[in-house]
């Protein structure tokens, strides 16, 4: 319920700030900032026609938020990562239309079967490239078999692979206590929680 | 995805299977499921071995439908996805799950160690066994000529395996844990909680 409210609030933030088509263009380009989008590819992703994107794209290129390049008759667009507002805009979309809200939605039906879930790795550190997989750790009673159908749907929405590592709370705790290198590195690194928070994770570990 | 497209892309070929071929596959599955349950192996190795069993089960179903997936880049993904065409809706959850496992297994075999954990290794053994039961049930209903002439019997319950002895959720039948087909006493299988 709390997650639902958060998503609704986030969605209304974007709706208040940007028209719908611009939201879609920015979510796609800022979500994969190294990717060059061909016009019809972007239109297909957003479920609209290429002609309806032309004005938005021209405006975003003119303002320096996107850059474009020509290859023959084709025009490609991508986020201008050198723009002074790039990181701020990207963070805004990460918090609203980005990975975490989509994963929150996907995991919500599992309720108490998931005690903690978070994104880790290059995406959590904001060091991803266009094709980076999204690494997600899930701790609880929901296994990969339970999660996989929802994950496939999330991958379609995100346009990238989502790789989950699932632990029972007992095994997670045991591995932390025995000094597992992989988990120690994950816990030291940056995390974006999509279920629970640091206190829930500490509780599982027994801190 | 359709068989027509898979044939056109040379991802699949028409294929006529035989009881001998299926029994060989059954033996591979039996071996892999038995090995995947060995506590002394690493979680990675148990995971990858159980995944192989699931892949063989998928290829069994595909063979009974009259096709064979061509061995080339991405053929595991095609095999798993094609089970949806053969088994229908019942296979969707397994195809999605084993696609997740396919990526993990690829990392295990070619890139990193300590990728799978114990939770995941135990789960895939249960899932692979359930999927195999699903495939054998489908073969029994749709290709009775390929079903063993002396139906397997569970040593514990006396019921035929796997159709009558399908495990409930959280359990798994190890009826498939038998040696090579020629040596197999199919009347002496067993069911056990996983």
Short overview:
The complex is a heterodimer of chains A (207) and B (194). Chain A is of the alpha+beta class and 207 residues long.
CATH class of the largest domain in chain A, please? Alpha Beta
Instruction: Determine the CATH superfamily of chain B.
Output: Nucleotidyltransferases  domain 2
The proportion of residues forming helix of chain A, as a percent range, comes to: 40-55%
Oligomer: heterodimer
Find the CATH topology of the largest domain in chain A.
Answer: Beta Polymerase, domain 2
Largest sheet of chain A: 4 strands, mixed
State mean pLDDT of chain A (0 to 100 scale). 84
Order of helices and strands of chain B: HEHHEHHHEE
What structural class do the secondary elements of chain A suggest? alpha+beta
Low-confidence stretches of chain B: 159-172, 174-194
What is the ordering of alpha helices and beta strands of chain A? HHEHHEEHHEEHEHHEH
Number of domains of chain B: 1
* Spatial strand sequence of the major β-sheet of chain A: 6-5-4-7
Total individual domains of chain A: 2
Strand content of chain A: 15-25%
What does it look like?
With 207 residues, chain A is of the alpha+beta class. Chain A has two domains: 2-92, Arc Repressor Mutant, subunit A; 99-205, Beta Polymerase, domain 2 (2-Layer Sandwich). Chain A has helices spanning 2-17, 20-31, 39-46, 50-62, 86-95, 99-107, 144-158, 169-177, 181-188, 198-205; strands at residues 37-38, 66-71, 74-79, 114-120, 134-140, 162-167, 192-195. In chain A, the strands form two sheets. In chain A, strands 6-5-4-7 form a four-stranded mixed beta sheet, with helices on both faces. Chain A has a three-stranded antiparallel beta sheet with strand order 1-3-2. In chain A, strand 2 (66-71) and strand 3 form a beta hairpin. In chain A, helix 2 crosses helix 5, helix 3 crosses helix 4 and helix 6 packs antiparallel against helix 7. With 194 residues, chain B is mainly alpha-helical. Chain B has a single domain, classed as Four Helix Bundle (Hemerythrin (Met), subunit A). Chain B is 53% helix and 5% strand. Chain B has helices at 3-8, 19-36, 43-64, 75-87, 92-110, 118-142; strands at 12-14, 67-69, 152-153, 160-161. The longest helix of chain B has 25 residues, at 118-142. The radius of gyration of chain B is 16 Å and the shape is globular. The model of chain B is unreliable at 159-172 and 174-194 (pLDDT under 50). The chains are: A alpha+beta (207), B mainly alpha (194). Chain A binds chain B through residues 143-145, 147-149, 151-152, 161, 163-168, 171, 175, 182, and chain B through 92-93, 96-97, 99-101, 103-104, 114, 117-120, 123-124, 127.
């Amino acid at each position: 319920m709390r997650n639902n409210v958060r998503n609704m609030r986030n969605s209304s933030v974007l709706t208040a700030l940007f028209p719908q088509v611009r939201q879609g263009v920015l979510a796609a380009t800022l979500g994969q900032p190294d990717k060059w989008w061909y016009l019809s590819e972007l239109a297909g992703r957003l479920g609209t026609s290429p002609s309806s994107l032309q004005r938005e794209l021209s405006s975003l290129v003119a303002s320096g938020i996107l850059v474009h390049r020509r290859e023959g008759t084709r025009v490609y667009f991508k986020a201008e990562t050198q723009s002074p507002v790039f990181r701020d805009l990207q963070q805004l979309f990460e918090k609203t239309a980005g990975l975490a809200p989509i994963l929150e939605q996907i995991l919500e039906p599992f309720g108490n079967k998931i005690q903690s879930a978070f994104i880790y790795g290059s995406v959590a550190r904001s060091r991803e490239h266009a094709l980076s997989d999204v690494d997600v750790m899930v701790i609880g009673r929901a296994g990969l078999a339970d999660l996989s159908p929802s994950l496939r749907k999330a991958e379609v929405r995100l346009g990238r692979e989502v790789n989950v590592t699932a632990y029972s709370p007992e095994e997670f705790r045991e591995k932390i206590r025995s000094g597992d290198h992989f988990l120690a590195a994950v816990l030291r690194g940056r995390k974006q929680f999509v279920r629970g928070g640091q206190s829930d994770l500490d509780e599982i570990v027994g801190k | 995805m359709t068989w027509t497209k898979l044939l056109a892309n040379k991802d699949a070929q028409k294929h006529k299977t035989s009881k001998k071929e299926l029994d060989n596959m059954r033996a591979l599955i039996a071996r892999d499921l038995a090995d995947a349950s060995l506590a002394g192996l690493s979680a990675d190795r148990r995971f990858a071995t159980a995944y192989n069993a699931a892949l063989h089960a998928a290829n069994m179903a595909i063979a009974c439908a009259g096709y064979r997936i061509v061995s080339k880049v991405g053929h595991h993904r095609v095999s798993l996805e094609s089970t949806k065409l053969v088994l229908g809706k019942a296979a969707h959850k397994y195809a999605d799950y084993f696609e997740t496992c396919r990526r993990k297994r690829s990392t295990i075999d070619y890139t990193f160690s300590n990728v799978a954990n114990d939770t995941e290794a135990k789960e895939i053994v249960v899932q692979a066994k359930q999927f195999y039961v699903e495939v054998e049930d489908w073969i029994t209903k749709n290709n009775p000529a390929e079903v063993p002439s002396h139906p397997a019997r569970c040593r514990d319950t006396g019921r035929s395996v796997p159709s009558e002895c399908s495990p409930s959720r959280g359990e798994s039948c190890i009826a498939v844990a038998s040696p090579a087909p020629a040596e197999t006493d199919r009347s002496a299988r067993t069911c056990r909680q996983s």
